[in-house]
Amino acid sequence: MNDRTAELLAAFDAGRIAALARVVSIIEDQRAGHEAVAAHCHPRVGRARRIGLTGPPGAGKSTLTTLLAETYLAQGLRVGIVAVDPTSPFTGGALLGDRVRMEKVALHPGLFIRSMATRGSLGGLAAMTREVCDVLDAFGLDRILVETVGVGQSELDIARLADTSAVILVPESGDAIQTLKAGVMEIADCFVVNKGDRPGADRLCNDIEVMLGLRGGAALAGIPAHHGVDLKAANPKARARAAAARDDAESWTPPVLRTIGATGEGVPAFVTALDRHFAYLERSGALRERRRMRLRERVRDLVERSVRRRLWHDAALTAWLEAELPGLERGESTPQVVAEALLARSVAAGTLTERTP
Amino acid sequence: MNDRTAELLAAFDAGRIAALARVVSIIEDQRAGHEAVAAHCHPRVGRARRIGLTGPPGAGKSTLTTLLAETYLAQGLRVGIVAVDPTSPFTGGALLGDRVRMEKVALHPGLFIRSMATRGSLGGLAAMTREVCDVLDAFGLDRILVETVGVGQSELDIARLADTSAVILVPESGDAIQTLKAGVMEIADCFVVNKGDRPGADRLCNDIEVMLGLRGGAALAGIPAHHGVDLKAANPKARARAAAARDDAESWTPPVLRTIGATGEGVPAFVTALDRHFAYLERSGALRERRRMRLRERVRDLVERSVRRRLWHDAALTAWLEAELPGLERGESTPQVVAEALLARSVAAGTLTERTP
Fold it and tell me: What value of ipTM does the predicted structure carry?
């Protein structure tokens, strides 16, 4: 570690926000010193609660994120917001009515906001987001709110890195149920129907509860069983069973909440649900398991990243691959044969084990 | 290669759709024989034109995909549709008004429809989609239409594997311009404003043309320059220059088209634009480059997949990593140190080079 890095980390340990911002940049861009910085942060990780907010564009995730941040700040907690969304107002992307509110909260000294570059992330977006959350956690923030947009695979990967994942939906988004089908049921610890005073909110809440098996009713058309959704037959006892299960230390049934972002209605109940979920995670041992899983994935990501860096930055190996391409195009070899030969060459040459610059 | 695989590949070569479906499943699930199957397909790849259709949910991608498929089938071409979208009607997910039309075209003997499992794909969704496209290409299909939803990183990765990427937008989707900002400008070879008779279509077409520098006008608020969008100042000659550039063999300016999915209006012009883009790719040498890039990425994906399979399926290595986790949790070591030790152990033990079962 050089002097500049040591100085930066001293400022980081002293709680200076400017140092945090620089450390995050070093990690995100994998700049010189990033390994020392990550090593410094590692033993300090484990205090923050990580809350993911995911959902389709326009669901009001940024507004709810702002309202949660305000609540936590009012409790005297320090808050980080990580926006993994190129269209998030936190990135300066959108012009929403509550922009003023966001700008106001953004000035609070207890708040740190970071927007992740979603394209060309070294080592994958989910891995990088987890690493940035580790830095914020090590810095001493109490709550980390991760806002992700969409229903794609990468968004689900990002949602999985939170302690608690809240899925935000709105009645008018016609694709709400489709979002649910896209694998979101499995990752949701909490459902929030935002703009909950609009027509269709009752219906949407009901649909979600049916999908959760909390409520009997007509099966939702078009939801195939292999999506992992357990569509229990109409059963008046299902709801009572589910309610009882909520008090069970060993299981958790995602609550279906209603908020109105414009007025803040429902936000206190949302905060309470998040607290209750965290308490469940702690007493059930699930928190320990989620954190161990994150650590396992972190090591695996680092191994894979190291392999990629060593292989694809190796000039001799790159030149060898380029020379193989014309033969591949002519069909004289197959990608499998070339790939195995490349890997064998790299091992023989020590590419995977030598110290990297 | 065993007898069953040989028999299957003979049926594949004979053009039997059932054999194609089985080969795609073998590839997608990485079942026994997948290497022999991929090797068989490789020299047969390179005839099909790959067309990506991407855009936000509800833009009408599936409808346009159906209309394109009908057009190509009427031309006597064989068509593949690969739906990388858990909410696509092709996957049985949605109940749209034109479902009937899709079901009708789905019965055509010249059409093959495949929906990609978007979760837990072995080796990454983009890599797997490319591999499935290779199989469809090797089978002898003339056009492969890849439908992807959303604006996430993985969707952009998927869009990049097409010869031609069309971005589908609708006037009423308030996030259209945000979609453009999310990196879509760079990958779009063609813009389609669907539901082009609705209010706002003129404005959206105009906004896209401004972003493309085809049209002067007020700069779009909130689009920072680092998104790669060249916002040319108001310039009446820009459009004429751009039109001239379209006839230049060495450059391509994405056209902004308008369609009405419900009536099919604008679809012939869309087909013509796709043909013109392919002709441009051929004469400019860009097609050759795109295909070479795909081949290079294919080899790299295979290497990385092979490394992952060997490392994470190795029982001794997995046990070693599990034993390291408690020390990591106590902060006695760092993920970086454990990752490097794991890689060194795997190389020393020959894990990365031994034949896999």
Answer: 0.79
